[in-house]
Write the structure tokens for this entry.
Amino acid sequence: MAAKKPAGLDRRKVVAALLADRGDALVVTGLGSPTYDTFAAGDHDLNFYLWGAMGGAVMAGLGLALAQPKRRVLVITGDGEMLMGLGSLATVACEAPKNLAIAVIDNGHYGETGMQRAHTARGVDLAGIAKAAGFKSATTISSMSAAQSWLPTWHKKTGPVFADIQVSADPAPMRLPLRDGTAIKYRFRTALLGSKADK
Amino acid sequence: MQTDQQTRATVWPDEIYDVLKAAGVTQVVYVPDAGHAKLINRCHADKTMRAVSLTTEEEGVAMLAGAWMGGARGVLLMQSSGVGNCINMLSMFEECRLPLLMIVTMRGVWGEFNPWQVPMGGSTAAALENAGVIVHSVDRAEDMKDTVHACATLAFNTQRPVAVLIQQRVIGFKNWNK
């Protein structure tokens, strides 16, 4: 397998652009850099920051999307996290939630653990896998202009939609959000459900 | 004419369904098991429930975390062999204090034919407890309704992961000759 040509997109700019027009969307972030990127774009009560549960971000997004069919749900995760839960793409494709979008911030590496190369840097095509699983909309993005034209689709196009956004492997400055899971839960549920959060 | 025991053996999946319905469960996520077949069919037939087939049990754990974040209640149906697949994902439930109701049909412990089921069957309860899950066991069909109801109440009211283990004795022998 040929090595993929490195792309130069800035992950922080991509994630900030993803969230600039989030409206009342609910956001789930995969552990590691996507959690930090999402926080860096602006903390929000309706961010469910994952700091663990590797491989579970897309499924947490599916459960949320089915529970809140009128709200848009965006999962922002990394390529390593996505690779650990590839089966979830098959499950999401079968359930076909119209309100779910998945954006993989793909730097081709395991950024938290010493920048080891991931399968995505060795030719594995996540958008191809999503498409083969049955996603009607699955695309690979490697330029800011392509990103700009995809951005409106994540909240306007009928889901599930998937994008593998290829970003630079350069590290971004550390920005660490709230990490107490119970506090994250109460904050999110209170913002979403109001007084019903206690029920 | 059916004996009381035979009647019990056929109605417990319906009893679980009734308890789930009364508890407000709307997401029923599962990896299929023969012991859960009737319950799975009933949930698929219920328009107020979303029954979702998974590729692996840990998907269901993560999915029900998302469901609760969104205000929905769920249940995870699976066989004991799938418990090992769930362990790291269960960390979400302790860390975030989330409710989880798991209903696990046992293999490898009583009247088992397949030796490959024995290792996970033997460690199912301990593996769950080590991962912070409260475990209750149903050894007799007549206890099913009360135990599932008690576990659902415990899970959703105290926001903790709870598993019901349905022992093989309740499910009956798997027929390997059919």
Remarks:
- The beta strands of chain B are 25-30, 50-53, 73-79, 100-105, 134-138, 161-166.
- The interface with chain A takes residues 26-27, 50, 52-56, 58-72, 74, 88-89, 91-92, 95-98 of chain B (CB under 8 Å).
- The CA atoms of residues 106 and 167 of chain B lie 5 Å apart.
- Chain B has a mean pLDDT of 94.
